[in-house]
Structure prediction request, 748 residues.
Amino acid sequence: MPSADRQSARRRMRLLALGLAVWGALLSLRLIDLQVLRASELRSVAAGQQEEAVRLDARRGVLYDRAGRELAVSVEVDSIAVDPALIDDPVRAVSALAIPLGLGRPSEREELIGRLAESRRKGKRYLRLKRKVDPEVSAAVRELRLRGIQFEREHKRFYPNGSLAAHVLGWASMDNDGVEGMEVALDKQIRGREGHMYVMGDARGQTFLKTVRREPVPGHSVVLTLDETIQHIAERELAAAMESTGAASGTVIVMEPASGDVLAMASLPGFNPNHPGTFESDARRNRAITDAYEPGSTFKIVTMAAALDRGLLRTSDWFDCQNGAIRVSGITLHDHKPFGSLTASEVLQQSSNVGAVKIGQRVADADFYDTVRRFGFGAKTGIELPAEARGTVREPKSWSGISKATMSFGQEISVTPLQLVTAVSAVANDGELRPPRMVLRELDAAGAVVSEKPVRPSRRILERHTTDALREMMVAVVERGTAKAARMPGYSVAGKTGTAQKIGPDGTYRGNHFVASFVGFTPASRPALAILVVLDEPRGALYHGGDIAAPVFRRIALPSLRYLGVPPEPGREWIEGDEPTLVAHAHAVRWSHPVPLDEKERLAELERERREQERQAAIERRRARQRHAEDTIDPEDLIPVPRPLPSPRGVIEGDEVTMADLQGHSLRRAVGWLGRVGLLARVDPGPDGAADGDGVVVEQDPPAGTLVRRGMEVTLRPGRYLPRREAPPEGDAPDDAEAASVAPARLR
Prediction:
């Protein structure tokens, strides 16, 4: 090869080598730039394009009532998102989604189009459209079959009873946070711990890897003291009273005095916690704990207690009520009508302000203030609910010349409904003030008990002789005083009415704005329930507590006592024509009961005496038959040891209940169990014409194992031994194997 050609070849080789070297150097520099200098930045960009972090909601724990019925649950629903990179025509996509997603206004659609365009410009692969939608919305979006639409499963809070106990339960936000009521008070226990998942996708938007970095942990469930049935009764009767009186708002609290358990807490106007945003904030306020008001004459119980407890008053002491007017520090205070001389008991019966002022004057200022504070006024009760108010109780050094006089009948002091019913419960509880509670126990995700909430310690605020006298005086208020409309057949009632004028914006009392109330407990001899009814600003001719609040107490207390299986007191049986009518309801026993008229009292008293004589005669006949039966009873007819009653949750399926074996259980327990599962009880007195309330169930219809619809009536026959039965015809009774295979009958 000529030398010139060889030199040219070497030159080309050198140029090629130089080019390769330069190319290699540039490639190395680029690799160093990408993988070293800009590695962190590029990894972040790649992660943003290929990897999406998704929060996994934890399931909030269930809120149960005391009988195990669900009040608040978490259900799985869809949240709807989109990959903006896969939306070729945002305008067309948004137009299709507008109807199912509820984008009715043009501005809403334009906003979503703008968000899609912005996400595409920034290279985002995920945009959430709507969270936790209803199943019908999710189904409608799926039918569109739009490219890029994604569905995520999340937990949404659901309240199966709608507005029932809404102010107590509160609600939870879309982010699974408690917002109001027990949802926020118990948020730490019931919210659980959220998880995290990472989703990897390719350039075409296809998901190819999902990695759960942390599994969500469900929250604990909580059993509340509320009883769904009693809550329903309270809300129903409060709503009826507000409709009939035109009241602006109302509150009812039902409490168990011995334990402080709140069985019902109702406030109206109400709201639906499934859609809290559609209601005004005023409707969402729990007036039972947030609203302080002047209690009016219900506070005379405290005035009486202050004087009685210090030995400054006897119930038989006489007071000149000065024809309904008294001057204190130059100010004239009036009664609702003129009174002459009244005993201390009659002062409470007739609700005399003048008499209350004179009783309050017997007590030193410091002692009066001490009694008010011992009852718990001016301090929070400590209930688990948030936003509890303290009320207003001024110290004696800031009182005016008439402060103690007006406080004696419930002015110049403000209390919350919960404080007042707790205070009266202390009278029912023989002077032991038991703070209220709302939580019974906490359960883990498997249903095992994590912790029991003990009954809160009580403290003695009154001597027993004081509460005995107060109880007697409060019974007289109902029997012969201003609260006759609270009387009930079968049970004695101790209570006090209140009709308080409201203060206007100018600081003066308005003559046509009132708060009507009644607070009491029943049965008076062995209190099972304490109930407060408050109606704010009733309209119309009737506005006194005795006229409109006392009847509500009666209509709540009577079915609640029957539902709880509290037996009537001896000597207070039903009056003919006065027995309530039992009506089926899907969730509760409902009673309708006429208020006894004053003109019927004399005839009713005669009828009571006649029925009492007949009752005693029937008891003697029944005892004679029992003695004869026990002498001749066959051992096979003895009542067997009863099987434990199943939990309501284990026998209720939809609208149907599997009947338990009630044979051998006490009549009270059987009636209580039927009420908790939504069935009605009818007691069959048997051939002697009278039901034996001290006996046990010996027969039931329908029998155990039968499927019945909720709201149906179950007949119970009490006794002390099994009734004799005719032997079935030979061959009619199936053997054990055949009996076990028979499907339960269905009753409609």
Notes: Residues 415 and 705 are 51 Å apart (CA to CA).
